[in-house]
Structures are given as structure tokens and as C-alpha cells.
Amino acid sequence: MHKTRNLWRWLAVIFFLSFAALGWIGREIYLEKPPIPQQVLSSTGKLLYSGEQIQRGQEAWLSAGGQQMGSVWGHGSYVAPDWSADWLHREAMTLRNIWAIQQFKKDYSQLSHEEQAPLDVRLISVMRSNTYDQASDTLTIQADRAIAIEQVAQHYMGLFGSDASQDKLREQYAMISGSIKNADDLKALPAFFFWSAWSATTNRPGLDHISYTSNWPHEPLVANTPTTGTSVWSIASIILLIAGIAAMILFHQMHRDEEPVICPENDPLVTLKLTPSMKATMKYFYVVIGLLLAQVGMGIISAHYQVEGGSFFGIPLAEVLPFTISRTIHTQLGVLWIATAWLATGLFLAPVLGGKEPKFQKLGVDVLFYALLLIVVGSIVCGWVGTLQRLGTSYSFWLGNQGLEYTSMGRVWQILLFIGLLIWVCLLGRGLWPALRKPSESQGLIAMVFISAVCIGLFYASSLVWGQKTHYALIEYWRWWLVHLWVEGFFEVFATAVIALLLSRLGLVRATSANRAIVLETIVFLFGGILGTLHHLYFTGSPTSVIAVGAMFSALEVVPLALIGAEAYQTYRHNHAAPWVAKYRWAIMCFVAVGFWNTVGAGLLGFAINPPISLYYVQGLNMTAAHAHAALFGVYGMLGIGLMLFCLRGLAPAANWNDKLLKPAFWSLNIGLFMMVFMSLLPSGIYQAVASIEHGLWYARSAEIIHSPVMEALVWLRVPGDIVFAVGVVYLAIFALKLLGRDRSLPLPAGKLVDA
């Protein structure tokens, strides 16, 4: 007990120090973010853009789909271009051609190498020189460059407008005609794209050859190449990773628990009494399966749009369901169904762990269910209508689609979800309170479940921090608080603690050992995970210190994953601990799959892109998508399904349980995911990475690459994996529906559950 108390103290210290450091870095991002000038002037005195236009352009892009329609600074979807890289390349090419015509009366492409060379040098000098004057809050642009900017702006106004000459390109980008209806918004959009590209290439004050985005994206025309820090900290992170893995293995061997666990002869949960609130959680799990089915459908449609930007096998589906909507729903539901499974698990276990049913607990569970259902349906419908009708920036921010990946729902729905999560924490706390007050071997585990639940509820408030006019660099800072810390952090701690509790209640692990292990694993995870958030922010207008801190701590994130494979094997061995454990076989197998995908998806594929030098070239490419799919579903999705099966084992009639349906469901889901990642997403990401390294990010994300024969073939190779995966979801749905059939088991005493 003394050792455990010391671990809790270390956990508290690391938690508060890490968040203090993360907050301090947030302050530095605020102070050193790329400036938004009050006015952008030509050297002739002509006003090109105002600061208000730049801000309005950001709002216009987000309301039109934002990160679901291409990306800025590498974060977003991958069918349309990265607009900052695309603008940068177009502006450089246009400016260089203007000079060629002025000097030689010929296009740049018609010049000899000797004639091109001085223009290339001049281009780098002009594009990288920082002409922003802080005193007057004015950015002054050379007259020739101002002409190039105006020409490039016409391209984007036509593309996001209704210019018929851009129809083919719109189809390749999976865009709809007239994405932005308001004329002022359409005129402001290029201002934001220009500013994002200017931030990416102009030198920071006082720094030699380092832009506001640390020279991201790779663009040889303007000498945007990796900084020295990007390379040095990448090497240092790899060394730290190797040292950390060695230390973790050594620690694990020195503190191995050799005392064997004596498994109970009978299922300890066989006499579990179902309370009204526990029974009320069953409908949550059917919503989970419904949302999973919808997510898979939207994922198939979104993937197909990469081949046919406006159609689905010839059907003009984009007229009612464009790519921006299908992908928004796909990413949003991915988080919501997993979160719903975990929330329901907490509500189901609260009375079990607390030992009694709090008054009005069932009412609270029912109210929360319908509130969450309203939020899910309302946010999707409002986002859908807003995108189709182009209802403007204010509607998109407050009710529709904010245009931010994984946190796209309008602010009203975010506020309601935050309130719902606080209600969930209260319901969970009421149920767990007796167990939290009573000393026991499991008290530490129950405390970890409750503390992580409180963090889940409170940290969702990070989605409410940014406003409609917040600087884009700060939006990205706070968005990753939500996506990384909320989804990848506290939810994982919560789920891991719940699994440990379940296994200890089944007698498969000792509660004291599980208690120490969970606290220790949480320490290791949060030590790397909190500051590891910064690896998402290397190139988002943040100071160079972010690369150093993010590289080192994101390497530490991977360290505990080195032992996950061994833990997965130990979990698999639980299947053979006693004959009665077979009834939990497929729930336990889901936890085994979590170990596998933690090692492969989060570990191998994650660290493949985490070092700064790697992410410099592959940010915004399908390498990221491969990691995201393997980690999000493989780890968090399989966790959610495993927890759901544990709960359904207690909720459903034992005679209706059918392992013959769960077996193909489990293997189809995992094999389908493996095929999807390693036959399609990863190869296409590698193909794009080669193009990015050789020619620049703009080329890797261009229509020429995205719709090349190789890329389209790789998209089609995703179909077999999608089919196998979808079959697994269908089997899971059929299994769940059969649980609702007439109870065919023998009559039992009231409130008792006995395996058939």
C-alpha cells in the first residue's frame, strides 16, 4: 500500500507539471503566432487585403467544409489539396513567370537554365523576406508579387465559386459548385490562403531561413526545406525511444509478479443482480452498433469519392451527400460511437462497484440517453443542411459544421455535449461513491475510473475555448487538446482501468497487482502523452521549441507500447484460465486485439510519422490516415466493442448468446482493418511520400498524383478490406439483434443471471 501511495503522488506531480508545461507552451504559441496584419499593401500603395478579410476568409473556408475539404498547414482531408501548399506553389510559379515575360518576353519554361537561374535566386529572396512592419501592422508586398497574388486569387474564387471552367478540377477535388455562396466571403477566402502560405515561407523575425511554420511545407522553389532543429530533434527522439524501451523492459523484468493467480472455480459474476439503471444501459449499446454501421457506410462513400469526386458508381450522390458531409459524419461518428460504448460501460458498472442503486439513477440514465441521441442526430442534420444550403459562417459555427476534423459539430451542440458529459460524471460518481469511501483492494482502481471520468467530463471544455474569430494557430492548439488528450488520453486511461476492474472481479488478475499496474501505466502514459500532444503542432505556426519538446515526449509515448504485445499474450492466456471463462472469450479477444493494434497502429505506424523529419514530408498524406485508422478503430474501437460485449453478457439472456456469430464478427473486423491499412492506405501514403520528398507537398496532394493510375488502383484495393470489415459489422449487428429475441432460458429467481 505504501508503494501504491507513492505512485499516486508521482502521478499527481507528473500530471500538474506536464499540464503546466503544456500551458506555458500554449502561451508561447500565442505570443509567437504568425501575425495577421491590419493591411496587406502593394509597394505602389494598393490595398490587397485587410486583416478583417484574412479572418473572414478563415471563417469562410471553415464554413464551406474546412478541414473536410482539403487542409491548411497539413491538417484536414486528403482528396483536395493542402491550400497553403497549393497557394505557395501557384504564387511562386506565377511570380517567376511574370519576371520571365518582363525580362525576356518569354514564359519561364522557355528560358535556358542560365536565364532561369537568377530568377530562381530572386524568387527565394523575395518570397522569404519578411516585410511585415509591426509598428504600423502592415505587410508590404512588391508590386510584381501583388500582381501574382491577384492572379492566383482568381483561381480560388472560381474554384470555390461557380466557374464552369473549374468543373473538372472540382470533381477531382470532390468539391461541389458554389461551395461559398456569399460574394464577400468568396473574395475573402484567397486572403486567408495567401496568409497561410505567407506564414509558411517568410522568415521569422530574428531567425535565418526559418519560417513561422518551420519551413513547412516542403517547397524547393522557395527553399522551404527542413530546419536543422527538425533533423537534430528527430535523431534525439529515436535515441530516447530506444533508451526508453530498454529501461521499460528492464523495469518490467525486475518487478515481475511471479506469484501465480488462482482462478476461481466458478464465474464470480454468475449471481450478479441487475438494477433498473443497469438494464437501462442496454439501449446505449444498440445505438453504438447503429452509429458504427452508419460510420462504415459513410467511410465507404467518402473513400469512393477519391475516384469519382461527384458520383457513387455513376449515381450523382454528391448532389445530396457531398464529400464534405460524408467525411464529416464518418469522422464524427467514429468518436461518438466509441465514446458512447465507454460511457454506457461506466453507467452499467457503477451500481455493481458501488454495491447499491442510487435513487433516481435509472431516470438519470434514461435522460442522458435521449439527450445524447438528440445531440448526435441534431448535430448531423444541422451540419448537413448548413453545408447543402450554404447558410453562412455564423450558422456553421453555432449550429452547423465548424469545419474542424473530429470536432466539427456546431458550438451549441458542443455545449450540450459538455453538459451531458458532466451529467454522466455525476451519475457515475453517485454509483461509485460507496466504493470510493470503503477501503478495499479495488479502491485504487475504482478511484482511477472516477478520476479519469472527471477528466473526460472537464477536459471536453477545451472544445469551447476557441471562438469564431480565434487565430488559426490557437484553434489548432486547443483542438488537439480535445482530440489527443480527451480521446487518446483520458478515455484510454478510463477504459484501461475499467478492463483491469473487470478482470480483477472475474478473479483473473489480483486487484492489488492491477491497482499498482494501472497507476504505473498511467504515469508512463501521461508523462509522454500530455506533452506528446505537441507532435501535432510542429508546423502550425508554433515556435521552434514545440519541435524539440514534441519530438522527445512523443517518442516517450511509444515506450509503453513496447510491452503491449506481451500484455496481449497474457490477456489471451486468460481464455484458458478456467472453463467458465469461455463465456467471455470474445470480449477478452477484443482486448487482445487492442494490444495488437496498440503495437502496430499506435506504435509502429504512429512512430513512423511522429519524428519531425518524417512528419515534415508526410503530414497531410495517407501515411497519417493509415495510422489513424489502425489506432482509432484498432485500439479504441476494439476497446469499445470488448467493453460492450462484457456488459451485454450480463444484460442479455444467456440462452440467446451466440458465439458462432461473434467469431466471424471479430475476425472480419480485424482482418478487414488489416487489409484496408496495409493493402491501400499505407502503400498510397508511401507513394505520396516519395512525391513529396522529390517535388514538394503540393505535388503529393495534387490532382496529378491523387488521380494517377497508381493511386486510383490503390483506392480500388481498399474495396476488399472494406467488404470484409463491413461483413464483420453486419455479423455484430445480427448478433445484437438476436439478443433481443424471446428469452429461451429456464425460469430463474428474480434478479439473478445464470449462464445457460
From TrEMBL:
GO BP field: aerobic respiration
Keywords for this entry? Membrane, Transmembrane, Transmembrane helix
Q: Which GO terms describe its cellular component?
A: membrane
Asked whether the keyword Transmembrane is assigned, the reply is yes
Molecular-function GO terms, alphabetical: cytochrome-c oxidase activity; heme binding
**Which residue ranges traverse the bilayer?**
7-26, 232-251, 284-305, 335-355, 367-392, 412-433, 445-466, 486-506, 518-539, 545-566, 586-609, 629-652, 664-682, 723-740
Matching entries from Pfam families are given as: COX1, NorB_cytochrome_c-like
Which residues does the UniProt record annotate as the domain Nitric oxide reductase subunit B cytochrome c-like?
37-218
Protein name (record) = Nitric-oxide reductase large subunit
